[in-house]
Amino acid sequence: MQTHLLGFSRMGKLRELKRALETYWKGEIGAEELIATGQELRARHWKLQRGAGIELLPVGDFSCYDHMLDMTAALGAVPARYGAPDGGVDLDAYFQMARGGQGVPAMEMSKWFDTNYHYIVPELAPDQRFSVNVNKLLTEIEEAKQLGGPIKAVLPGPITFCTMSKSTDPGFDRFELLSAIVEAYEELLGQIGGQCDWIQLDEPVLAQELPDEVKGAFNNAYDALLKAASPAKAMLATYFGSIAHNLDELEDLPLHALHVDLVRAPGQLDAVLESLPKQTKLSLGVVNGRNIWKVDADKALEQIRQAVNTLGSDRIMLAPSCSLLHVPVDLEDEPELPTDIKRWMAFGVQKCQEVGKLAAAATGQDVATWLDENRAAWDSRRSDPALHRQDVRERIGSLSPTMYARPLPYAERRPAQRERLGLPLLPTTTIGSFPQTTDIRAARRDYKRGDLSEETYLQRMRDCIRGVVNRQEELGLDVLVHGEPERNDMVEYFGEQLDGFCFTNNGWVQSYGSRCVKPPVIYGDVARSKPMTVTWSEFAQSLTDKPMKGMLTGPVTILCWSFVRDDQPRSETCRQIALAIRDEVADLEQVGLGIIQVDEPALREGAPLRVSDWDEYFRWAVDCFRLAANVAAPETQIHTHMCYCDFNDIIEHIAAMDADVISLEASRSRMELLEAFRLFEYPNEVGPGIYDIHSPRVPSVDEMANLLRRAVAVLPVDRLWANPDCGLKTRGWEETTASLRNMVEAARIMRQELRP
């Protein structure tokens, strides 16, 4: 019963890759040192996997930025603005595609299915040509061979690659290129098929409802790809949901193995077993690759035994449900976690061990001690009284319909807000955070360690806030923010002040590029014991006569960007968080804040992969936002922010949130998302981002003014705002100041153009 992984963490347990990337981008190290860091991490991670009981090692899952960007480079599908690939994409061109630079904008980013991982969106043009280069993959295959044992090349599959791409020209159907993409894959697989034992092609789109253009394409595509991959065996990997509704697309396909996610979709096993071709092995994803809780070994073994009874043990493989990219590396690096909670957890290395132990148990080996420890941990978790609070449950039970609605509709709130705030046409603002300098991070670190007194820490944070407020006033921004110097992360900061959360020291996971997040862990009922942001916002407002926004993270985003308890419905946990944020909104309003922003960038991300399952999710997700925000009085302006998701798909649900102002990521797509507003008459105010904060380049005044002109062509100008795409936490002060100065000037120019 062979064990394997679909992928592993790239960053390293101490974020070694992040540091190497950022020093390379600053010019402090050369390409050789960056490449050497990658080699060292790959070797270390393969040894960890093999030592934990993984037999078939993944190769190609490592990336210096993103696996979809790697695939774009391997296929030579490089947009023309970066120059034609000649012998492969070098590092400079690769990072320019990801981050922009030299006056050239970056490629778009979007969320990888329903995760908080951002991928670089491939661009496909009508005249697209492909130029295959597999040097990177062949190099890594040779590295893995040095360890001995079987290896498996890991690639995004062609159907997923095409589906997750975008068409560059309006009206062009990118699926017209599917046959050309498959031909490029054939060439690629032909070059690596003799160098590895297995080739894994990831097709998570099978968990979705397939577009008409894709239906029927799997058989033709994979018939050709399996021949090209020989002598390597081919595995088609699916994850993040059930594929039971798409099994007919795989009928009679001579796969060597099919991987299914039995954590997210345990109910699909019967259908998969019934339809699996006789020559195909079944890889069971029984260990959760998306969350940090221990596997329920008894439950997993039931699934394994069912599969063995139907297929025989020689046709079963075991793995985590998906790539371990989404979980931290090693639980052993967390000595400060509470012991009783830590025993319920498993990180990447431990999940590899779980796969090995389950394989051993399923094949009759003696792992009784491990099974007893696993059952004891689960019994402890199920019976722990700290997980269930009576006061929280009673408050949830007392909710009434009026708590979900504002006292007045937007059309009647708007005049009161305008009178209170006195804002100009096209008001300018930012999303919330400002650059987090080394000094700011050091102050937080030293305070947390006890090396800095509370009085000194508070004074340093006030000084930072005063500086940010002064800068904004000098730049001429209309609505200010306090800059969030006290916040380590937009979710972790709130989790640290809420009951029911615990935290890691090294639980880092990749969000995009070098950006890592350390998700908090929701293990029990959530409640707020004291105000979380009021002191900082009240102080910031005292420094200026301009409106100051109170900045909060919304309940759906806190839910989605945490490792969430899995012993109750997510909707119930989300409602508990919503009540905590509701109390904060009320307190901010009480101290005089006239604008409060409740960010929900994860609203779309949290949706099920199948559109037919959306109604139930959006019903409770939108309700949770409304429960959190709608305690505000009519004259208080409620903002929300979203980024890097498909707004066109969910515009009616965004409207149902009834925020007075929504700010959106829009600059990388050059306002393409505004098509949603052309087709749907959005009733409230909108701030489409005109400054791409994920790129180090400074956009010009003309560039931002032109984006505003595109917005004005779609939306009423008296309901438009000017703002960046997202928060400015990761940017430097020099580029931030220059970009915001250009943004304010672009808004001024547009006001002159639009003045009656």
From TrEMBL:
Binding positions for 5-methyltetrahydropteroyltri-L-glutamate per the UniProt entry: 15-18, 111, 116, 515-516, 561, 605
Binding site for L-methionine: 431-433, 484, 599
Record's cofactor remark: Binds 2 Zn(2+) ions per subunit. Binds 1 zinc ion per subunit.
Active site (record annotation): 694
Domain of life of the organism encoding this protein: Bacteria
Binding residues annotated for L-homocysteine, in chain numbering: 431-433, 484, 599
A Pfam family per the record: Meth_synt_1
Binding site for Zn(2+): 641, 643, 665, 726
Any one GO BP annotation for this protein: methionine biosynthetic process
Cofactor dependency: Zn(2+)
Annotated pathway: Amino-acid biosynthesis; L-methionine biosynthesis via de novo pathway; L-methionine from L-homocysteine (MetE route): step 1/1
Domain Cobalamin-independent methionine synthase MetE C-terminal/archaeal: 426-748
Gene3D superfamilies: 3.20.20.210
Every Cobalamin-independent methionine synthase MetE N-terminal domain range: 3-308
Keywords: Amino-acid biosynthesis, Metal-binding, Methionine biosynthesis, Methyltransferase, Repeat, Transferase, Zinc
InterPro entries for the chain: Cbl-indep_Met_Synth_N (IPR013215), Cobalamin-indep_Met_synthase (IPR006276), Met_Synth_C/arc (IPR002629), UROD/MetE-like_sf (IPR038071)
Chain positions recorded as Zn(2+) 1 binding sites: 641, 643, 665, 726
GO molecular function: 5-methyltetrahydropteroyltriglutamate-homocysteine S-methyltransferase activity; zinc ion binding
Role of this protein: Catalyzes the transfer of a methyl group from 5-methyltetrahydrofolate to homocysteine resulting in methionine formation.
Family under the similarity heading: Belongs to the vitamin-B12 independent methionine synthase family.
Protein name stated in the entry: 5-methyltetrahydropteroyltriglutamate--homocysteine methyltransferase
Species for this entry: Oceanidesulfovibrio indonesiensis
